[in-house]
Design brief:
Blueprint lengths: L3 H12 L8 H7 L13 E6 L2 E6 L1 H11 L2 H18 L4
Antiparallel strand pairs: 1-2
Helix pairs in contact: 3-4
């Protein structure tokens, strides 16, 4: 899932105990729905990414965030996350 530069950044932040939250497409990928993005950056969840504990925006707040932007790609992301969330609740994922 991670390219070496991205993994290095996450490791450095984690090792220094930096407070950070993954948002946007990075949070989407952490929740199982990868999409390319140009940005990196509430309520959060801790997800292990290649054995690195990473704080990401929670699925519920990520959906809210995506809906608020109103951009077509973000609305599609919110819809996909809602489907994944429903599948998780129904034990299908």
């Amino acid at each position: 899932m991670l390219n070496s530069d991205y993994k290095d950044i996450l490791l450095a932040l984690s090792n220094k105990k930096a407070k950070f939250i993954l948002v946007g497409a990075y949070a989407m990928a952490a929740h199982g729905f990868p999409r390319s993005t140009m940005d990196l950056g509430e309520l959060t969840a801790i997800i292990m990414i290649e054995e690195i504990p990473v704080q990401v925006l929670s699925v519920a707040d990520l959906i809210k965030n995506k809906r608020v932007t109103g951009r077509t790609k973000d609305l599609a992301d919110a819809e996909a996350l809602e489907i994944l969330q429903t599948m998780d609740k129904n034990g299908q994922n």
